[in-house]
Amino acid sequence: MRTAYSVETVRTAERALMARLPDGVLMQRAAAGLAAACADLLGRVYGRRVVLLVGSGDNGGDTLYAGARLARRGAGVTAVLLAPDHTHPGGLAALRRTGGRVVRLGEHSGEEAGENTAARTGAAGELIDRADLVVDGIVGIGGKGGLRPDAAPLAERAARSGVAVVAVDLPSGVEADSGEVRGAAVRADLTVTFGTHKPGLLVDPAREYAGTVRLVDIGLGAELPAEPELEALQHADVAALLPLPAAESDKYRRGVVGIAAGSARYPGAAVLAVSGALRGGAGAVRYVGPAGQAVVARFPETLVSDQGPHKAGRVQAWVVGPGAGDDAATVAEVLDTGVPVLIDADGLRLADRDAVRARSAPTLMTPHAGEAAALLGVAREEVEGARLSSVRELAARYRATVLLKGSTTLVADPDGGPVRVNPTGTPWLATAGSGDVLSGLAGSLLAAGLSARDAGSVAAYLHGLAGRYAADGAPLGAHDVAEAIPEAWRDVRD
Quick check: 115 pLDDT over 80? Predict the structure, then answer.
């Protein structure tokens, strides 16, 4: 499992570790890992031109020491100092001893300073244009609010030049704890992070700026608490949670899921939710709603009822809302049951918040950003820009587990604890009906006995893999995603 910790937790762990180590050892470990990652990206170090963008403090020190290591291997290394009076003295001396050059931001080469970006960056801009690699050591993990005006043109210049960019610990300008990007920021091809992942490396929009992330072990693990801020399941974690039938299993032991979905206008939502539940391993599916004929025509094994949820027969979990239109009565009836309930799509709009909060059985809500924004009373852009705080706030308000769909799907419990981040998402899942399939899939896992948190996390993981397999670089529909779920299941198990 991949885990991420807050800035304060990381700093506390670093202080504890440094108290037991000789002075400077931790920084040398970080610099060694950073230099190795840069060398791997360059392929050949000798004769390559490397530009270091160096801010103040330890982040700049890591960058300078790594630059010194590259210079010793024959790279031409130039450090651009953004805070000359606060540059790490030991790192700067090490770079100079190995023949590295130093340029202060604002020094000019062949032109005078002006209002255009090229002139404002001076010699630094020209160096970036000619570089084989730029190392971003401008701001450490405590940075807030985007890049300062003097640093932003350097990030712009690097992006325009197309040069490879390596970020030190975190791309400068993104916020480590929240994953928010509140101004100009560096876009990295590779981020080398130390000791542990930071939340912003796993959550969009910051994740998009990080590129590939490489974790360097500096010995911090023993100092970190058992409970992280974020966690991302991997194949082995998902495999351990998959509900597998035993020799004596029957449909009830495997889990019967009820689907209350669809309407005269949206019968397909019911079909797709049922498909997700069946492909997700449900022992049986009971369908309630006006799309019974369409469901049975596609999936004759479905048990169809027109008597409403309370008279549909025994179920171990309900899915309510996909394509439900304005059927508030059915949503209320499902919420009144004593089994786990997943609420999606129209059900999110129709569900009474007090009724959700009053439930004793688990509740899993699965909004996309637009639906979450409506429930929170904010603009969609606010949710997309602050995904982590939004999912936590929604879970607290409704006293329910919330799966916030999107570029990085997040799962949060109402009582706190680590937020789960799904690492398998793909833009190909942005297709009509894909969310209905996810609802059915998660509902089947709820019916099999998984907690709301585990059901949401495993469903998002399998759904993401299925989207990748079904698309394989080409357009797809929600039906294709459902059909690929068994392949994702087998891949995780194997």
Answer: no
Q: What is the dihedral angle through the alpha carbons of 42, 45, 49, 51, rounded to the nearest 10 degrees? A: 70
- The whole-number pLDDT of residue 427 equals 92
Residue positions forming the annotated binding site for (6S)-NADPHX: 58-62, 140-146, 169, 269, 323, 368, 436
Whether residue 117 has pLDDT greater than 80: no
Please report the pLDDT score of residue 106 as a whole number: 65
SS3 of residue 140 by DSSP: coil
- Parallel, antiparallel or unpaired: strands 284-288 and 303-305: parallel
Show the CA angle centred on residue 186, arms to residues 97 and 411, nearest 5°. 125
- Residues at the binding site for K(+) are 59, 136, 172
Q: How buried is residue 240: exposed, middle or buried, by Cβ count under 10 Å (0-12/13-18/19+)?
A: exposed
What lies within 8 Å, CB to CB, of 251 at 6+ separation is 283, 284
Q: Which residues are annotated as a binding site?
A: 58-62, 136, 140-146, 169, 172, 269, 323, 368, 405-409, 435-436
- Compute the distance between CA of residue 471 and CA of residue 215 in angstroms, rounded to an integer: 30
CA distances from 406 to 111, 237, 324, 366, 427 (A): 46, 22, 22, 11, 9
Strand order in the sheet with 164-168: 101-104, 76-81, 49-54, 133-137, 164-168, 190-194, 212-216
Q: Which helix (H) or strand (E) holds 155?
A: helix 152-161
Supply 221's token pair.
């693990």
Nearest one of 149, 143, 144, 145 to 168, comparing CA atoms: 143
Number of Cβ atoms within 10 Å of the Cβ of 9: 19
Note the pLDDT tens digit of each residue in 342-362: 999 999 999 999 999 999 999
Arithmetic mean of pLDDT, 77-87: 95
Quickly list DSSP for 67-92: HHHHHHTT-EEEEEESSGGGS-HHHH
> What φ, ψ does residue 135 adopt, rounded to 5°?
-110, 120
> In angstroms, what is the C-alpha Rg of the chain?
26
**Distance in angstroms (rounded) separating the CA atoms of residues 387 and 26:** 32
CA distance 75 to 327: 68
Secondary structure class of 236 (helix, strand, coil): helix
Confidence class for position 468, pLDDT limits 50, 70, 90? very high
Which pLDDT score is estimated for 84?
Answer: 93
Q: What pLDDT is recorded for position 361?
A: 98
The pLDDT, as a whole number, for residue 57 is 86
Alpha-helix runs per DSSP H in 1-148: 7-18, 25-42, 57-72, 89-97, 117-130
